[in-house]
Design goal:
It is found in: Membrane; Plastid, Chloroplast. By secondary structure, the protein is mainly beta. The protein has one domain: Umud Fragment, subunit A, CATH 2.10.109.10. It contains one helix and ten strands. The strands form two sheets. Strands 1-10-2-3-8-9 form a six-stranded antiparallel β-sheet. The protein has a four-stranded antiparallel β-sheet with strand order 6-5-4-7, with no helix packed on it. A hairpin with a 2-residue loop joins strand 5 and strand 6. It starts with 9 loop residues before the first strand and ends in a 15-residue tail after the last strand. The C terminus is likely disordered.
């Protein structure tokens, strides 16, 4: 999720909001690994950004993310994608998630859509030790 989050960041998540609302585009979510992925246990946790929801057509090409044919303005990503993905329609009960460090992220462009039932919670903010570890805008890009 670099540059929004960095290795070693401590994050605060909340679990209540998805009982009263659906996951939304640009929410940063924490979720259990998709069970269809070899090498990952079901209890492993990922953190990624929702870029498309049920009914959306999503694809990556020419370095940009397209949702329903519209190139997305993503000023929070580390760099433009160097890969392309096939057009995917997100099924009901699923979301499409990508990491902000697109070229180094293991996400929906690799393994497909994510069942909403796998979502554990929503990222709220990062916190740091009083020693002054790297101040930055905690909500950048959300």
């Amino acid at each position: 999720m670099y540059p929004t989050l960095r290795v070693g960041d401590r994050v605060i998540i909340e679990r209540a909001s998805y009982y009263i609302r659906r996951p939304a585009i640009n929410d940063i979510i924490i979720f259990r690994a998709p069970t269809q992925q070899p090498g990952f246990r079901e209890e492993e946790i990922f953190i990624k950004r929702i870029v498309a929801s049920a009914g959306d057509l999503v694809e990556v090409h020419h370095g940009s993310l397209y949702v329903n044919g519209i190139a997305q303005n993503e000023d929070f990503i580390a760099e433009r994608a160097t890969y392309s993905s096939n057009p995917t329609i997100v099924p009901r009960g699923h979301v499409y998630v990508l990491g902000d460090n697109r070229n180094k992220s293991f996400d929906s462009h690799n393994w497909g859509t994510l069942p909403v039932k796998n979502i554990v919670g929503r990222y709220v903010m990062s916190c740091y030790r009083p020693s002054g570890n790297r101040p930055h805008n905690d909500r950048k890009g959300t």
